[in-house]
Amino acid sequence: MQLSQFNCDNLFAGAVRDGQLTRCFDLKYNKIRSMNKKFLLTTIALFVSFGLFLAGGAKAGSEHNVSGWAWSSNIGWISFNNTTGGGETNYGVHINEDGTFSGYAWSENIGWIDFAPASGYPADPQYSAKVDTATGEVSGWARALSYGDGWDGWIKMRDGSYGVSINFSTGDFSGFAWGSDVVGWISFSGSNYKVVTSFVPPPAITNLGNTFPAPCSQSRIPTFSWDTNATKPYDYQIRLCSNSDCTGASDPLVLELKENTSSTSWAPACTYACDISPYNSINFGGGTYYGQVRARNLGGTWGNWANSGFTTYSHAYPYADFLCDGANCAGVEIYEEVVVALTNNSTTYDGVLSCLWTLPVIAQLVEGYTTSDCNIEVTFSAPPPGQRNQDVTFAVTDTSNYSCSVTKTLEIRFPLPEYKEVPPLIWLKNFFAAATKFFTGF
Question: pTM for this structure?
């Protein structure tokens, strides 16, 4: 059976049977030997300059966190670190804290492969190799430095049908990169080889969301909640911004740091209309804002920002309140069968549409009042034994149909004692005294 170019290019993608490995290798070896003379001279020059190149820019392999071997059916083995590739020259590939790659891998057939080329990318994405620290997917470009004579040397780490990934739990690479006809498919793991890394990404924020759980308590800014793979306790930072990339002229509008915490939620330290700085930089009126959260292990490197947008209410929800006889109900003595005035003391931001009182069964409205009046007068009859604390609820609704309520517990005291005037009894005392003296005188 004759092997096609396509069969061998897809060798490690499973398109060729194991028994064809030797013939595929011979075919690719012959292809490399048949490269034009100019390219071979470039390759020879590359080997000659091996030591000089490294002396000028390569770093020690032990200082890099990527090692192991990848395989190309066109060019053979690719070493990612001299600690695994051997030799006295130090080199290696490194993953930086932000997920970008740097450094060099080595192939005996095409020489150095730069994992941080600065520019000239032939297509999207327009950046060098990097890993998404949340998903482990590697994307971007690397480049063989021996490019020339019609070969551009570019190696793409991910496209729609293929890609390289890292399992951060094990550090193992997997998947394929593509290096055009010269390099072909590069496999990052196989039955007896793999590329590995000791890189541990900063913790990620996932499932970030927001809600207004109780707008009557605070209606300007929602509560945010999330998941994280950080080791708890950890640090997190939250910011509120006017656009999704937080580049507005005044961004961030709110910025807070929480250290040494196990919490996975945040709410602003304010209540009701939340009209205090810096929170009042978030304006009512239906505008769109963005909450962003990032995490780090205690004192470590920050992970990426997660993003969650929200829309503000047209105005603040009402602040519902009422008074008892014109004062705070907690300081007013309320007695059985004594009239008490309950009056609206709410704050609304779009007028008052309606009020509604919910009274206990022992309360009686004074004639002429209804429970839908904003101000009423009531009396309380004797409550059942042990139930002198009675709840009164008052709800107010504004013209935007935003409604809030408040419940207060009133202590209903025993009735006031009744006082009656009686005639003085001093004459009776004098009578008995005189009678006693008279009879004891005999």
Answer: 0.61
